[in-house]
Amino acid sequence: MRVAAFASGSTGNATLITTPDGALLYDAGLPQRAIAAQCASLGVALSSIRGVFVSHEHTDHTTSAVALARRYQIPLIATMGTLRALKIPAGVETIACRAGDTLAFGAFSILPIRVSHDAQEPVGITLRYGERTVSIATDLGEWDQTLLDACRDAELIIIESNHEREHLMQCGYTAALKQRIASRTGHLDNVQAGTFLAHLAADGKKRTAWLAHLSQEANTATVALRSVTSVLKFHQCEAQYRSIVALPRQKTVVWGDAQRSFQLDLWADPQ
Fold first, then answer.
1. Is the whole-model pTM more than 0.90?
2. For the domain that residue 125 is a member of, what is the CATH number?
3. In Å, what is the CA distance from 191 to each residue of 51, 79, 234?
């Protein structure tokens, strides 16, 4: 399994999981041309994508989801709430999933995970392929035990670390937007993300963590890494993470067998 984050943030989100049995695109919040170029840079043909999993209906996650599904005759996978919100046109195949119910999709096993966000029926996922497991949870205002338990088997955890709370309060957003972001159905801040990772590390398993969906106005990669690692150090569990990477907004970051040795002791700031 190879995981490539093409983009992460309010301007677009897309992650490609590739295997010898085909690929799965998690969110498609970039134009088709951008996704095609990123796939080509990795030597992946768009025709090898078996499905597009959509976490929720917001446009930074769905820009080209329907168009890709229609053009390449691949199914859209999402909850019923998300599918209804997207208003899927005739001729596009859809597969409805439900949080907590594992979906067998080709060689993939997909567990949708309920998350708290201001969308119709948003989810994260734990995706299994053979002995490899990755969990993705972005766009959530709080985490709970259900999410924690669902991510236990993940070697790679992609978790939202959207903003630094103090920076959010001081940035130029409107009061209403600040309130939305900081709410229980908004976005995780750096300390919340670090606390989630600390609780996850309590089982002693070695993992890699990617910090996702960083705010352009209320966060930076440096600030996110500093805050998250401070929380992990407080809980004395930073050594449980092979690497922690703050994902850039528009730059591909790759994890997989070929990257594991190079990431073993790296705490990276790719921006």
1. yes
2. 3.60.15.10
3. 34, 29, 11
